[in-house]
Amino acid sequence: KPPIEELRYFLEFQIPRVWAPNRDHLPGPQRKGPVCPSLQFSLMGPKLYVSPEQ
């Protein structure tokens, strides 16, 4: 049986840590759809996709 002094070190490893907040739980304005459907911005690169459909 470990000493009682080491119990708090053991319990620290039992707490799940979240390294980054979940996108669904971020505060701020939440947009469900694009403002302009013909323009789509990509967060993965500096490209802007323009749809020919109106």
UniProtKB/TrEMBL annotation:
GO biological process, one term: regulation of salicylic acid mediated signaling pathway
GO cellular component terms, semicolon-separated: plasma membrane
Superkingdom of this protein's organism: Eukaryota
InterPro entries: CAD1/NSL1-like (IPR044663)
Name under which the protein is recorded: Uncharacterized protein
Record organism: Nymphaea colorata
Taxonomic path: Eukaryota, Viridiplantae, Streptophyta, Embryophyta, Tracheophyta
